[in-house]
Design brief:
By secondary structure, this protein is of the alpha/beta class. The chain contains 15 helices and 16 strands. It has helices spanning about 30-40, 100-110, 125-140, 150-155, 155-160, 175-185, 230-235, 245-260, 280-285, 305-315, 330-335, 345-355, 375-385, 405-410, 435-445, and strands at about 10-15, 15-20, 45-50, 75-80, 95, 115-120, 145, 165-170, 215, 220, 240, 260-265, 295, 320-325, 360-370, 390-395. The protein has a five-stranded parallel sheet with strand order 3-1-6-7-8, sandwiched between helices. The chain binds iron/sulfur cluster. The site of iron/sulfur cluster (SF4) has 10 residues, from loops.
């Protein structure tokens, strides 16, 4: 049987406009999952990732950014004038991503796409998203642009009215996108992943990258907790895990096909159900004698750590551990539902050290700038973490629409958060009160 080539779809990871951005194993995993699903349904896919430092033609440029260990590092960037809403903010503003001329060249070299699928992340990055879509429209004015991802899901009206896309998809959109593409291209889906069966999803299409220093893994979706500041329940309601064998096969595939050694877990709740999930995955890999490294940019649940689990993490090759402490104000933890109680964190630290993790390899996230949080509470948390010889990482609070804390954030903020997503930017400490730039800098210095 002769197969006709399927419709050509181009997936786009857009530019970021911000005061600062750092590539901490950041890849558009949702978009890559979608690319895998489209290919499994007979579409031809191209990926243009505006943030890819290994983009064709980029590495030879004199402006190529400094890269760090295990595939992290700086992005390309170009200075920009600040949007009017941010005029008074005393920081420089940048477009993060490859030089525009490289993007244009790659776009012009594409076969005529039948649709663009554009993803989106932080709500306050929308100017970079809007710019990317306007470039697509300039080069291919007749090609429909479908916008999905976080911004589209969290602020669908803003996404619909301000970005210049033709279609908006909210939430995890495999089924919706396949149906939309069927109406746009005439190609009906034959393989639709089942949302509740994560093993039914084709592998994310990381092979679309020319250079692969690491692979991002999602072994589960969602989180069983519901912290009021977090969008996990909005973006991925419910908690589901893949089969350990499926995850092992995915890792082996990349080891064998592209000699990848570094793997990055994107899970929100990696340690939950350890003995039936992550434990068998790591044991299975250890049996094969592979020399792999694992990284966890998302916070691990402190309470899930015990001696045997910590030992297995260490033996399996976890390098840097990041844990979600958030604050040492235990009454605040109680009001959030008791994800952690006093003493959990010191106990977890002891078992990690006993397992072999050096303190310099352990980092702890502390939230800074929650509505109603005092400077004193943040300072105290930083000091308590430092006193144990651990590096605190300030996670400056960014208000997220649709989260339980959003209404309180809107009441506390010195900015009109509902009207202007640029004010959700965590660099502004939008909900810190009383606020001054000196106080913000003082917190950063204290945590350094
Ligand atoms: S535990 Fe982490 S991922 Fe889960 S709801 Fe809380 S902050 Fe979000």
């Amino acid at each position: 049987m002769i197969m006709t080539p399927g419709p050509h779809i181009c997936l786009i990871n857009p530019y970021i406009w911000d005061f600062s951005a750092f590539d901490l194993w950041a890849k558009p995993l949702g978009l890559l999952y979608l690319a895998g699903t489209l290919r499994a349904n007979g579409f031809q896919v191209h990926l243009l990732d505006c943030l890819d430092v290994h983009f064709k033609g980029a590495e030879a440029l004199a402006s190529a950014p400094i890269r760090k260990a295990f595939g992290t590092g700086k992005y390309f960037r170009q200075g920009l004038s600040k949007p009017v809403a941010l005029e008074k903010i005393p920081y420089h503003y940048f477009r993060y991503g490859i030089p525009i001329d490289l993007f244009l060249k790659a776009l012009k070299a594409l076969p005529q796409p039948q649709a663009f699928l554009v993803t989106s992340l932080m709500t306050y990055w929308y100017p970079g998203l809007k710019e990317t879509i306007s470039i697509l429209k300039k080069i291919f004015p007749a090609t429909p642009v479908i916008l999905g991802g976080l911004f589209a899901t969290l602020m669908p009206d803003q996404a619909r009215n301000r970005m210049g896309a033709d279609y908006i998809i909210t939430g995890a959109g495999e089924g919706a996108i396949l149906n939309l593409l069927a109406s746009l291209t005439g190609r009906s889906p034959t393989r639709v992943p089942v949302a509740d069966d994560l093993d039914s999803f084709p592998l994310p299409a990381f092979d679309l990258y020319r250079t692969l220093p690491y692979i991002c893994l999602l072994t589960s979706r969602g989180c069983p907790f519901s912290c009021p500041y977090c969008a996990s329940q909005v973006l991925q309601p419910g908690f589901r895990q893949r089969s350990p064998d499926g995850v092992i096969d995915e890792i082996l595939y990349w080891v064998r096909s592209r000699a990848v050694r570094d793997f990055v877990f994107y899970d929100d709740a990696l340690l939950i159900g350890f003995e039936r999930h992550l434990g068998p995955i790591l044991e299975g890999l250890l049996k094969r004698g592979l020399d792999l490294r694992f990284h966890t940019p998302n916070a691990l649940h402190i309470r899930e750590l015990n001696e045997s689990r910590a030992r297995l993490l260490f033996r399996a090759g976890f390098r840097t551990l990041r844990m979600g402490l958030e604050t040492t104000d235990w009454s605040r933890h109680r009001s959030w539902g008791g994800k952690l109680v006093q003493g959990d964190w010191e106990r977890a630290l002891r078992v990690l050290e006993k397992a072999g993790f050096e303190k310099k390899r352990i980092e702890v996230y502390l939230l800074a700038g929650l509505p109603g949080q005092t400077l004193g509470e943040i300072e105290q948390s930083i000091r308590e973490v430092r006193a144990l010889g651990i590096r605190p990482r300030l996670a400056e609070y960014s208000p997220i629409p649709q989260t339980p804390l959003w209404p309180e954030a809107c009441r506390h903020s010195r900015f009109p958060l509902q009207e202007e997503p640029l004010y959700h930017n965590n660099s502004l400490f939008p909900c810190l009160s009383p606020f001054s730039w000196e106080a913000a800098q003082h917190l950063k210095d204290l945590a350094r």
